[in-house]
Structure formats: C-alpha cells, structure tokens
Design goal:
With 113 residues, the chain is of the alpha+beta class. It has two helices and six strands, in the order αββββββα. The strands form two sheets. Strands 1-2-3 form a three-stranded antiparallel sheet, with no helix packed on it.
C-alpha cells in the first residue's frame, strides 16, 4: 500500500527553513557592516582625553566622548562603529587597524563600551 503521508518530513524541513533564514539574516548583517566599513576607508580619526577628531575627505569634525555613547562593537565581525548621539554612523574601525587596542582601551575607559 502506497500513501502520501509526509508528516514525518515536516520537522526536518521546518528546521532547515529556520536555519536558512537565520543564516540569511546573519549574512545580510555582515554584508551591511562590511559596506559601512568600506565607505569609511578613507577616513582618519585621532583621539585624546577630550574626544575624537574625525577627518573625512576635506572636513574635520571634533566630538567629545559623551557624543559617542551610541558607538557599538561587533566582535563577530571584528569591527567597531563610531556612532554619534543622533545615530549617524561616522566611521567603522577594523580590529587590525593601527593602535586599535589602545583606542578600545580609551573607549572602554571613557564610554564603558
């Protein structure tokens, strides 16, 4: 007797769908962070006890540490994003950048991030 009972196949199928959706969201997130990083490759930043100085093409911006409280680090992508108080992305810094560890220590000291 041949039947079309496929109920035993729904569990693995649903699991595969959930895994594929999760991987798609993760890949989109990583791609988005990569694109943000690539757009800020020509930017430079200097920092001190007061805040940072950001050099973007021909513009120079000075921001205090308080205005960078929304900044966020992404360990799985090895990127730290500088975000101002209004939520604007200023710059992405890769973990392999020069003086990154010193910069992260300063950020941890000033912002607790």
């Amino acid at each position: 007797m041949i039947t079309n009972d496929v109920s035993y196949e729904l569990g693995p199928l649903l699991l595969l769908i959930v895994i594929c959706i999760g991987l798609a969201f993760y890949c989109l997130r990583v791609f988005y962070l990569l694109m943000r990083f690539l757009t800020t490759l020509n930017h430079k930043v200097e920092y001190d006890d007061i805040g940072i100085t950001l050099y973007q093409s021909s513009q120079t911006s000075k921001l205090t540490w308080d205005k960078l409280a929304k900044s966020k680090g992404y360990k799985d992508c090895q990127i730290f994003c500088l975000i101002d108080e209004s939520g604007n992305h200023l710059m992405s810094i890769w973990e392999l950048a020069n003086n990154y560890s010193d910069f992260r220590e300063r950020v941890a000291e000033k912002l607790g991030i």
